[in-house]
Write a structure and sequence with these properties.
binds FE2/S2 (inorganic) cluster; alpha+beta; single chain; five-stranded mixed beta sheet; 5 strands; about 170 residues; about 15% strand
């Protein structure tokens, strides 16, 4: 007797509902249709095409994905994009004015604040926020305030020197 063919399970991924989100990034509005579970980092990189913010750990432990939300630094890998509807987001791509680098970018170059450069966008965004927050004057204080940003290359001395230079120039 012939057996009825075994029916293969339906492995087609289920599509979830999407919603509209408007992200304001570097002064420009982007309206996206995304699933509510999409992180801000993925929205920036995969949907908007701003790949400067890096995905290091994807778990809030390395700081490579740091961006500014209304001027405050956040780990974009831990943040859902839908939570930032109409919040002003700044990424590394939004710092320079044309060919003129942001002072923190210029100081990182001057002081060799990077090696492979993977952590650098997050380090720079964190440093920019730190200088706005009110930067400690000691190297130790700066290290403490930058401790959420990990550099596997160990470029820390250059990073601290860069932050110190910009801090001093701000008086
Ligand atoms: S990628 Fe977000 S903290 Fe590491
Ligand atoms: S420069 Fe390579 S991880 Fe920091």
């Amino acid at each position: 007797m012939t057996q009825a063919p075994i029916k293969a399970p339906n492995l087609t991924p289920q599509t979830s509902d999407t919603i509209n989100v408007t992200l304001r990034v570097n002064g420009k509005a982007h309206t996206l249709q995304i699933e509510p579970r999409v992180t801000l980092l993925d929205a920036l990189r995969e949907y908007i095409g701003l790949t400067g913010s890096k995905k290091g750990c994807d778990h809030g432990q390395c700081g490579a994905c740091t961006v500014l939300a209304d001027g405050r630094r956040i780990n974009s890998c831990l943040s859902l994009a839908v939570m930032y509807d109409d919040v002003e987001i700044t990424t590394i791509e939004g710092l320079a004015h044309g060919d003129e680098l942001h002072p923190v970018q210029a100081a990182f170059i001057k002081h060799d604040g990077f090696q492979c450069g993977y952590c650098t966008p997050g380090q720079i965004m964190s440093a920019v926020a730190l200088l706005e927050e009110g930067c400690p004057t000691s190297d130790e204080g700066i290290r403490e305030c930058m401790s959420g940003n990990i550099c596997r290359c160990g470029a820390y001395p250059g990073i601290v020197a860069a932050v110190q230079e910009v801090r001093a120039s701000q008086g």
